[in-house]
Amino acid sequence: MSYLSKSPRPESALSRKNPTNIIGSSVPEPSIIPKPIDIPTLDEQDQEYLKNNNYLKNESSFKYTGLPGLNNPGPNLQYRLKMAFKSGLSEEVDWAVDTCLQASVQQPGLLNLRANPWLIDELAANLSCSIFDPSETVNHNIERTLNVVVVLRNISQDTDNSSVVALNPRVKEILLLILDNKIHLQVSMLDDLFEASKELLRYSVDLIETISSYISPAPKDDPMFLSLISILLKSTDRSLVITTLRSLSRLMVRSNLTKPFGADDITDEVLDNVSSYLMLTSTTAVRDSFNDDLILASVDFLYQYCLPGGIRVLNLLKNEKRALLIKSILPRLLTYGLNFQTEFTNELPMLKLNKRVRPPAPAHPPQLTADLYSAIDQLGEPARATVWMRCCYYAVEDGEVTQISLWRSYEKQFGDSSSKRLLPAVDFIKNVSNAFPSSSAVVIKLDNDQRKFIIKGIKPREYPVRVRVGEMEALRQPLPRESDKLAKDNIEASQESITLFNYSSNVSISLTEINTSAALLLNCLTESETGGKLLEGSKELLLEKVLQVPSLLEHIQPSLMSL
């Protein structure tokens, strides 16, 4: 055998690790044994959180050196917004619009259009929505458009921003498309399919209200002015009507009679509708803040319409029903909503006549004066008792006193202060007939089988009289029944005076915006010949309003001078 055939075959690395033959056989995989995970308790988790938090508290003591981006804050928010808009990526644009929406509420100063002139163009470029076409029912961009309109509405509350928005032609073009949208002009405001369009309309009219002062006065046949009039006539949404009226009022500012303006496009139907809103001031109408806003917007609208005077006042008052409505409600608006007091707002005072009958007899006899007491106390009994009764009582047919009260009064007068013994009670009662011959002791049987002992024919005096006077009156005929007698027969019946109401308590009342606007409209109407004739004879009513609220005088003084 050769050397090569006798030499042993070397083992491979695989055969050394696994001595079994691997050809045609598979190596068994080690079995996996699952083990439970020991979840830390809540207390342990809290301790771990506190431990990590302590590291965070000491983060300021750590030194960061050589890190990329260190001390580099990156671009500011305005630059990030600008780049997001310019990217044209849908997600980036949506982020930019959402960020602008949040900033317009929390930090509107970050969105200053004068400092960032590119922003108005980017926002206007995203005012697009397929709902503008009534034939399409899919709104792919309606959410973004809604957010953009809300952003413009919010930042337009700043006068610097509102002037920039008002001068942007793209914004005005889109706003006009929204106003002229046939869907929300024809479909009910409760239609869920186009509710987003209705919401867009509300926000757009809010935006127009903020910028209308910068585009006034609206010229005749102005598309935006005509669209607002169309919405005013067709809409039943109260908040939308209020905002539309405010926008139209501002668009009529600075208009005059030198040339036609948008105010000349207002029809009788519009004037009738606006005038009818004033009826919400009636006492039967439910008063709330929305009604007050609608009333104020209506008064301001009529004032701006009539301010130039002339033909416009004539147009407003040429309808008889509308003129009578304004005549009756306008004075009421001068004090509408004010809490003033008059003699009619308070409870009516009870009318009382002056008393002419005799006052009721005193319940107890009067106390003797010092000199009269000394004179009577010197007498012996029963003379002292007789004189005392005559000085403190008098004879009258319908008079009566109880025996016990008569005795108690006598005992009270002389029991403690006099050194003489009192006449016994039995003898005292018997002595009454000696003092007053017309009197008599009577026993009355009551319903409860009890008896009441009275002296009939005498009454207590209001004031004590002298001994001589009492003796003379006691021996004469008793006075007739005097309960129905007048104190003085010659006095005519008269009424007690009533305290007049003091109107000075209303001096401190402040007028509301409705009151001042109504005063401006009143002055505007009285300056014209047609309005002066309509309100002729209303001066007394206006003076009554001034009496109720004195601070109203300075506001309607021109009308009072004209009437």
UniProtKB/TrEMBL annotation:
Top-level lineage group: Eukaryota
GO biological process: nucleosome disassembly; regulation of transcription by RNA polymerase II; rRNA transcription; transcription elongation by RNA polymerase II
Comp. bias (Polar residues): 15-24
Region of interest: Disordered: 1-29
Metal-binding in keyword set: no
MF GO annotations: DNA binding
Stretches assigned to the RFX-type winged-helix domain: 385-462
GO cellular component: RSC-type complex
Keywords: Chromatin regulator, Nucleus, Transcription, Transcription regulation
Descriptive protein name: Component of the RSC chromatin remodeling complex
